[in-house]
Amino acid sequence: MKRNKKITKELVLDYIDGLLSVEERNEVEQALIDSPELKAFFDEQQSIHKGLKNLRLMRPRPHFVDNVMEGLDKIPQKELVLKAIFKNRGFLLLMGAALTLLATIYLIKVGMVDLTGLKDFNTQEVYQDLDTDVIQQFFQGTDFNTFLKGFLFFDLFLVFLLFDKIVLKPIFRKRAQMHY
Amino acid sequence: MRPSTVNDQESDLQIISEVIGGDKSAYADLVDKYKSYAYSLAYRILNNQEDAEEAAQDAFIKAYHALPKFGGQSKFSTWLYRIVFNTAISYKRKQKHYHDDIEVVHSKFAGELDSSAEKNDRDHFIHLALGKLLPTDAAIITLFYLKEHSLEEISEIMGTKTNTVKVKLFRARKRLAEELKRILKHEAVTL
């Protein structure tokens, strides 16, 4: 009986599939004699195994090959979606906005744009070198910190808007076309 | 590897190089060669003739477009069946759920089996039970038995580990036995 405990149902299936060594086969055969439960499992699976061995290929309808050959010129769905995205010029705008956003965040993170010192931006030291009067006037009357936050917010909003219009909508439109 | 398998692989690679070289019509030979197996695999997953044909055709078209990426590390058939498997599974997600009664499945298979097979009750009921299994269970049994793929090949097709395939195959066979019992019980009641 101790030997039977080692013989699992998985091993019985391996026996049916012919995956066992001679020694293992003998052990399984002995277990099948000793255990009615394993024997019942074996009989059931052996019968199914024989039936599955007779499993035959199913043939598709006669025009199968022609249909495939005709379909080869069609652009795959994935490429259609990508084309729908890339053909839109807004994609370039989206990329530009996203890159600007990432670049700004990166510059702030590495300290190239020091937000703590921004209060000094309105002082003469910072903007005195700027050439045009227009720019000087602009920075004189603007808190750069607020301007930067506003710019980031606008850029983020633009990225979301463009992403929805240029990427998400074409994907969902194509999906809907596939369903109906 | 059996000599016929080696020849098969060489002839597949020859056709593939012709197709990549611009001879699109050569692809028809590959489609013709593997259509039945691709269709059978898709059918076992989708349980519907039209959907299975559509999925298998779609898989062949996908394979054609991806042909330049086929590196030849594995057999073309294994690579193709992976595309068929994934395509059919993706179709299954979109497919309306078919709640076929045993009678419906019975009549569906009856048309597909030849008269000699119909006489064999065991084989016939196994077909019925396969139709009631979960898609991946039916697929794994089909892959294992229909062309006797090794567990390694099945793991490559299904994109899982060999040990996982072995466990899944064990469970699939147990579920098949349970379905078979259920069908036979139903048959006994209706007789």
Question: What this model shows, in words?
Answer:
The complex is a heterodimer of chains A (180) and B (191). With 180 residues, chain A is mainly α. Chain A contains ten helices and no strands. Chain A has helices at 2-6, 9-17, 22-34, 36-53, 64-71, 77-86, 90-110, 124-127, 133-140, 144-179. Chain B is mostly helical and 191 residues long. Chain B has ten helices and no strands. Chain B has helices at 3-20, 27-46, 49-66, 76-94, 102-110, 115-119, 121-131, 135-146, 151-158, 162-190. In chain B, helix 5 packs across helix 7 (121-131), helix 7 packs across helix 10 (162-190) and helix 8 (135-146) crosses helix 10 (162-190). The radius of gyration of chain B is 18 Å and the shape is elongated. Mean pLDDT of chain B is 82; it is low at 99-115. The chains are: A mainly alpha (180), B mainly alpha (191). Chain A binds chain B through residues 9-10, 13, 44-45, 47-48, 50-61, 64-65, 67-69, 71-72, 74, 76, 79, 178-179, and chain B through 24-25, 27-28, 31-32, 35-37, 39-40, 43, 52-53, 56-58, 60-62, 64-65, 94, 112, 117, 120, 122-123, 125-126, 141-142, 144-146, 166, 170, 173-174, 176-177, 180.
How many strands in all of chain B? Answer: 0
Q: Which class do the helix and strand fractions of chain B yield?
A: mainly alpha
Briefly note the structural class of the backbone of chain A. mainly alpha
In percent, how much strand structure appears in the residues of chain B?
Answer: under 5%
Largest interface: A-B, 31 and 42 residues
Q: What is the topology?
A:
The complex is a heterodimer of chains A (180) and B (191).
Chain A: H1 2-6, H2 9-17, H3 22-34, H4 36-53, H5 64-71, H6 77-86, H7 90-110, H8 124-127, H9 133-140, H10 144-179
Chain B: H1 3-20, H2 27-46, H3 49-66, H4 76-94, H5 102-110, H6 115-119, H7 121-131, H8 135-146, H9 151-158, H10 162-190
Helix pairs in contact in B: 2-3, 2-4, 2-8, 3-4, 4-9, 5-7, 7-10, 8-10, 9-10
